[in-house]
Specification:
Blueprint lengths: L3 E5 L4 H15 L4 E5 L11 H15 L2 E4 L11 H14 L3 E5 L6 H16 L16 E5 L12 E4 L4 H9 L14 H15 L5 E5 L14
Parallel strand pairs: 1-2, 1-4, 2-3, 4-5
Antiparallel strand pairs: 5-7, 6-7
């Protein structure tokens, strides 16, 4: 069981897009699970075993459960099989809220992951099905950004991660094969720190992460806006 499930195409996607938010949710007592649709391999400096170890260490830093599905990196497609595999996880974990990748990206896997996640949310409520588990429909779905192209979109809301940015950076540091040992990506972690400050400036806070909702965000109390 998990209050919140965060879905990414690869290990490190969730940490890049919303690692500070995840750290804050856990710090405030909510249960969070990360579901990686692939193991992220092959990459220039990684191996299957290395990526699993790094992802596990990052999950430990954030204090979350992590599940890695056996879908193909680089060839991730929105298929019935992929939707079903993720829907079965959602039926098991029964989250209230999903965080999924932003639907625009240069990386085809990220686009596919967004579509798979939204479709799996719908599949997870099926009653007449051979899928494992009982029907469940997460009430909310929000999109985070971990994109491979330079786009700036106006977010639905920005989460204040000023207190949790150090935990996000520590989680990202666990992915040595992708960042520290990969010359082409060696500046990514520093870039994430700067991006957090940029979004913080937009929200008039120290550090932030942007989120996007296709549905109106409903509040039980208007005081939550204060």
């Amino acid at each position: 069981m998990a209050d919140i499930v965060c879905i990414g195409a690869h290990p490190d996607d969730v940490e890049i897009g919303m690692g500070g938010t995840v750290a804050g949710l856990v710090r405030r007592g909510l249960s969070v699970a990360i579901v990686d649709l692939t193991d992220g391999e092959p990459t220039p400096h990684g191996t299957h075993e290395t990526r699993l170890v790094e992802a596990s260490r990052a999950a430990d830093v954030l204090g979350v459960e992590r599940i890695t599905l056996n879908l193909p990196n680089r060839y991730l497609f929105d298929s019935v099989e992929a939707r079903t595999a993720l829907a079965e996880v959602l039926r098991e974990l029964r989250p209230r809220t999903l965080f999924v990748p932003y639907p625009e990206d240069a990386h085809p896997d990220h686009i596919a992951a967004s579509r798979i996640a939204v479709a799996a949310r719908f599949y997870s409520k099926f009653t007449k099905t051979e899928m494992r588990g009982e029907p469940h429909f997460p009430a909310r779905v929000y999109h985070y950004m971990a994109v491979h192209m330079s786009v700036v979109r106006s977010p639905s809301f920005i989460v204040d991660i000023s207190e949790d940015l150090p935990t996000k950076i520590k989680a990202l540091d666990q992915y040595e094969s992708q960042f520290a040992l990969n010359p082409s990506n060696s500046g990514v972690v520093a870039m994430m720190r700067e991006a957090a400050r940029m979004w913080g400036g937009v929200g008039r806070i120290e550090s932030g992460e942007p989120f996007f909702s296709l549905e109106p965000v409903a509040l039980k109390r208007p005081e939550d806006l204060l």
